[in-house]
Amino acid sequence: MVATLDAPLGAHLAPGGSCGLAQAVRLSAVRLLDGRLVAFKPAAVIRCEVAAAVAGWLREDLAPAIAALGSQVTAVTVAASYDCRPRNRVSGARMSEHGLGNALDVGGFELADARVMKVEKGGLPPSLRAAMKDSACRRFTTVLGPGSDGYHEDHIHVDLAQRRMGFRLCRWNLDAGTVVARKDKPKPKDTAPAPAPASGSAPGDPATDAEPDGAGGKADGK
Ligand SMILES: [Zn+2]
Q1: DSSP 3-state helix, strand, coil percentages of the chain (rounded to 5)?
Q2: Region 33-47: what's the mean pLDDT?
């Protein structure tokens, strides 16, 4: 893992409470078991425990699943990491797990053969989608993806939120968005895709974390 320790990020007051993390890690790359480096673009600012979990996920699950597609992963697209904001960006809402450095949003992957795979519009091959969901839901306590709530159509949110009774969330409809899986084709306007998660949830909508106990979020900075 190639990571540097950031200065404490801290305790800015957000509408929903305080955010920040005492020991922030800036994760810029993970070294795979074969020695190759996989970059995080941009580097993710997260808690050390989350960085370790993400590194293990990439090394042991994601890299092999991508290798099975005939290439090698070279980069992970980071859609969001640390972000001091309340859930749903609603004033008074609880702090998002992003505001605690506890969450990472993955937008996709870059491969050695120049392929770029994106979560949006069913852009991940089915085998990778299935392996990614299965492994994420084993490693993280919250996983939100396409089809979960209308706000995670273009990224996968994972976090290590602690909940009462060890409750976990694993919500990702693997078929969501696959109707437009081929990006070289225009969007079919007259064919109804799988059940739309929510109206008005086009990419670029304001971030919301509709999940009551989860802490997802729309990719920030978009
Ligand atoms: Zn998120």
Answers
A1: 25, 25, 50
A2: 95
CA–centroid distance, 213 to ligand 1, in Å, is 13
Q: How far, in Å, from the CA of 172 to the mean position of ligand 1? A: 13
104 contact partners, CB below 8 Å, separation of at least 6: 44, 46, 50, 54, 78, 80, 81, 157, 158, 159
Q: Give me ligand 1 centre to Cα 80, in Å.
A: 6
- Inter-CA distances, 48 with 3, 76, 94, 116, Å: 9, 18, 22, 28
pTM attached to this predicted model: 0.76
The sign of the dihedral angle between the CA atoms of 152, 154, 21, 85 is negative
pLDDT tens-digit map of 2-25: 666 555 555 444 444 578 877 889
Q: What's the CA-to-centroid distance between 67 and ligand 1, angstroms? A: 26
3 state SS of 144: strand
Q: How far is the CA of 98 from the centre of ligand 1 (A)?
A: 6
Q: pLDDT by residue (tens digit) across 146-205?
A: 999 888 999 999 999 999 999 999 999 999 887 644 555 555 555 445 554 444 433 433
Q: How remote is the CA of residue 61 from the centroid of ligand 1, in Å?
A: 20
